[in-house]
Amino acid sequence: MDVDDDLIIDQEIQSLKCPITLSLLEKPVRNDNCPHVYSLDAIKELVRQGHGQCKCPVAGCVADVNVKSVREDKAMARRVELEKNRLEERMDEGPDDVHEITEGTSMIIEDLKLE
User: Fold this and answer.
1) Are 56 and 62 in contact (CB under 8 A)?
2) In a 3-state reduction of DSSP, which class is residue 40?
3) Does 22 map to a domain?
4) Is 1 within the bounds of a domain?
5) Which H/E stretch holds residue 96?
6) Number of domains the chain is built from
7) Which domain holds residue 23?
8) Is residue 62 part of a domain?
């Protein structure tokens, strides 16, 4: 299944996946100190573990994150919702490129044996 979970915004690739959970964003929040977006519950847990502050979990980013530096990202929430709907539609359609393996394929394997 080909999942397009990245968007290009202003020449920057913006992922629809949380960099912490690696799943589709849930309640996306954007850090005011950098352009990165996280799932609310995931970043809250990291901030809690860091006693009120942590570094951005995106590799290479050194921005600080705290509860005051993240804000709800409604635009990203809409994009995630559209992606979820698209994935549901694909699941409802079923796989159209899956073919059942039949007995005939064993002949092909026999032809490939080295003598």
Assistant:
1) yes
2) helix
3) yes
4) no
5) none
6) 1
7) 6-112
8) yes
